[in-house]
């Protein structure tokens, strides 16, 4: 049986898989786009309130306090609206009013009290802002942070809009890759396998790569639970979300050290071969030969321009993730409230792009290209694969082989 027939059969299966994945991802993209415009916010604190007249205030005052609370509670539900200015006359609670807070079902009042035993800095952060003092309709003090002006901006920007946009970036990029697989098929070894192998990566390189890869995937999955758990897991039950949230929080912290260490070792091992040069420009202009099987691929040394971009994304992205991650692990230790919110936004934004980029890397290393995975699995690649994708590197290896 010829290689062409074997490849032809493989490609059909990959293409069908790509088409199915593209259709599912397209549906997910439509859903996320709808979520952006559906008018409800992702993080609406669920709570209720009652205003009671303690007998000293007049009936008119009670009505006024009710109106204020209704207005403020509605603010929690509606996006893109700022509330009445606290400086406006009549905004502050009227004398003689007592607010009775009704905890959410299943929450105990003891919980917020336990949370209030933090250090002085934490207590300062948890104190409701002066602008809203006495008016929070939330049942525990730290949740009232949502109602403060910065908290409201954070909730609408970070926890809602950006979260949906992030999902669109990841799903959109995965959709394009699935479409590429469906239309273009798997990149073949054009000449078929030579059946002789060339050593490409040593044990230390592969071990470091897989340690970094598994910890990155762990960080990505646990991060997705933290950011999207409410959308993806809550429909299956609050208990499951609680368990998943607990595992994700600890899992995120556990995966962080091997990831940081892996980035450091990979940087030391591979930086010398990833300095950009003139060949990279030619490779990029030809799209790396990824979009067509016609003619030879642009020449490359050990790492082509696409791989250099992957390397530098891992390095710079990794450093940013580790830096912002450490600041998030020690809330308010290094930063104030506003800077802390920006760091959170930066962490989420860089994570989103890294996840999208590494979905691309995983795609090309597995289903997207015949023969690529061998490089990182056994450390040895087919000679024809090396000739087609890393011609100049193979020439160097062959020179060394004949010199021996
Ligand atoms: C299941 C997940 C992954 C698979 C299947 C995979 C596969 C591969 C393969 C086959 C190569 C060698 C390509 C060559 O021969 O030059 C490679 C290289 C590399 N991988 Fe991965 N990888 C994965 C995840 C990751 C992750 C998560 C990171 C970093 C956070 C990463 C970083 C790198 C880097 C920097 C290189 C060298 C540059 C390059 O070849 O692109 N990999 N990977």
TrEMBL record:
Annotated transmembrane regions: 12-34, 161-183, 207-229, 249-271, 309-335, 341-364
InterPro entries recorded: Cyt_b561_bac/Ni-Hgenase, Di-haem_cyt_TM, FDH_cytochrome_b556_subunit, Formate_DH_gsu
Subcellular locations according to the entry: Cell membrane
Pfam families reported in the protein's UniProt record: Ni_hydr_CYTB
Cofactor(s) needed: heme
Keywords: Cell membrane, Electron transport, Heme, Iron, Membrane, Metal-binding, Transmembrane, Transmembrane helix, Transport
BP GO terms, sorted: anaerobic respiration; formate oxidation; respiratory electron transport chain
Start and end residues of each Cytochrome b561 bacterial/Ni-hydrogenase domain: 200-379
GO cellular component: formate dehydrogenase complex; plasma membrane
Topological relation to the membrane, as annotated: Multi-pass membrane protein
Main subcellular localisation: membrane
Superkingdom assignment: Bacteria
GO MF, one example: metal ion binding
Family assignment from sequence similarity: Belongs to the formate dehydrogenase gamma subunit family.
The protein's name in its UniProt record: Formate dehydrogenase subunit gamma
Organism listed in the record: Poseidonocella pacifica
